[in-house]
Write a structure and sequence with these properties.
Two copies of one chain form a homodimer. By secondary structure, chain A is of the alpha/beta class. Chain A contains twelve helices and eleven strands.
């Protein structure tokens, strides 16, 4: 199935004159790595007009990846083919997808999220991949394309960021072997980790300190809360939790971790993590978000204290129900 | 040289009747993984009397490794052979080495620290190894020993903890390929990361929050300070900085990171980290400690505020001098 679909995808790419490649809004390392890698590979396949676009642009932290400056924030078609990477549903394709997806435009959807809605004409969705870049690496083998130093760097960036540098539960021997192969092809793991998972601002570090002063643990759920005023106090300029949730999830006394970060607009960004065997993606879906069993998220309306009460109740219930289920399965 | 020495080491082991295997005091994952792996392998080589001992015992967090309960805290020889792993100098062998190292007892020293003093009869010191367990993995190849699931788990534990789960600058394609091979041999990366680098207590998380309230950044050196009272306040029961220094080192505005943790006895435990290309091991050596260029430590006398002033001055000077040197080299 994957073999046949990947061959069909290759045929579509080879026939296309104008190709648009996009990824999901609020992009992470796997989104950007996949976007840049597919751009490079589609050009390598001889396509004359290849456009990379993303409503949010490329976050500054990925400036170390060559070609990131060439990604547009908006574009006007028409395009013969849309290639969308690491994007679980068409809504997360943002304005660029909305503007360019005409009736009849074929869409190739390359992704590894369990919540993928298979919205593409061809869906190269592999749940056994630790990152979308790993699927793209497998496509280079299927399509017999050369992986040069630049593509190797893009692909390893996705593997590193989506596995939190090989810490996630989805890291198989194949992930390690693929990472070794990408390093042999010239990818620089040390630079990637320094620029992504090992890189924070001093303000983010101070923001962690302030958020950790709010940490709570109840019924094996751990959480922390960041009102807008906290970000302003420490001078942290981005939205979000600065990835604190991943740290909270290391508590051995907790099965699930949650952070609540108030945005300037008064919305509440929620990040969720679960220990292996448990699932927070259903809670995220209920809240209108998405993600993986082990890592998911959503953005909901405030006010913040009410959002915290409501979501913590839901998470505690999800944890409780999953343990009941687990007991029954025994 | 390594090939000849490893053959000599194998001959010594094969001739020994009573073998003592030890590692360094205040053991980390590489120390414990190396200790347990060598115990298993020396038994596999048919030695009838194999004793594993370590003054400090095995920290509770390594209980998930089979055989950790069989490590003694003290032992009485005589032994025909001492095998010491992951230990940069004989002082760090602690009381067990002191009690059992008689005149003429051959010592096999297996280690990867740049500060290793080559105190053994045979020194299997490889600076190109990311962990001592990686050297032991190479020895299993040289000695044509089978790596079963248990040994694979021990060896991968050392690789994971000494590379901070493949984040350190010393991670080569060979490290990734060896990790993939150990996983294929049955090592469970997910369990290892969950039990080591991804495992903290709720108290340690609250301790981080308190320490981060003291964080400072000057001249590209970042540091945090933990008096005994802070540990008592959050209920954190161990000594040390709960690995906060590794987190501080992720600040892109800093080149070196330091933590100061006061012990119950009024001593000050200092942990040091440097960005790739810089070296904190010389500072640690000056302070009577040791380590690697990127990660080192020492324990000095208090009082705490004076220790902070003195060491921060030294670290700033080291950073400054290394940048001067770097400029001259250009």
């Amino acid at each position: 199935m994957f073999a046949a679909d990947s061959q069909r995808a290759l045929d579509l790419i080879r026939q296309a004159d104008r190709v648009l490649i996009i990824t999901h809004i609020s992009p992470d390392g796997d989104a950007i790595g996949s976007l840049l890698a597919m751009g490079h590979l589609v050009r390598q396949l001889g396509r004359p007009h290849v456009t990379l676009a993303l409503e949010d642009g490329v976050p500054e932290k990925f400036d170390f990846l060559p070609g990131s400056a060439d990604v547009l924030k908006a574009t006007e078609g028409p395009f013969d083919l849309i290639l969308i990477v690491d994007c679980s549903d068409d809504r997360r394709g943002g304005q660029v997808l909305h503007d360019n997806w005409r009736h009849g435009t074929p869409v190739i959807n390359i992704d590894h999220h369990v919540t993928n809605t298979k919205f593409g004409t061809i869906n190269l969705v592999r749940l056994d991949a630790a990152a979308t870049t790993q699927i793209i690496y497998w496509l280079t083998e299927a399509w017999e394309l050369q992986v040069d130093q630049q593509v190797a760097q893009y692909l390893l960036t996705g593997l590193v960021t989506d596995t939190l540098c090989f810490r996630a539960a989805n890291v198989t021997p194949k992930v390690m072997a693929d990472a070794a192969a990408l390093m042999k092809a010239g990818a620089d793991l040390s630079t990637i980790t320094q620029q992504t998972v090992n890189r924070r601002s001093y303000d983010a570090i101070r923001y962690w300190g302030a958020m950790l002063d709010t940490v709570q643990l109840e019924d094996r759920v751990i959480w922390a809360v960041a009102p807008v005023s906290m970000r302003q106090h420490v001078g942290y300029r981005s939205n979000g939790d600065a990835s604190l949730v991943t740290f909270l999830a290391t508590a051995w006394e907790a099965d699930m971790a949650v952070t609540f970060a108030e945005t300037d607009a008064g919305l509440v960004e929620i990040s969720l993590r679960a220990k292996p065997g448990l699932d927070v993606s259903a809670v995220a879906l209920e809240l209108g978000g998405g993600g993986h069993p082990a890592a998911a998220g959503a953005t909901i309306n405030g006010p913040l204290p009410e959002a915290v009460r409501r979501v913590i109740t839901q998470v505690k219930r999800a944890r409780h129900d999953q343990f009941e289920q687990h007991e029954e399965d025994q």
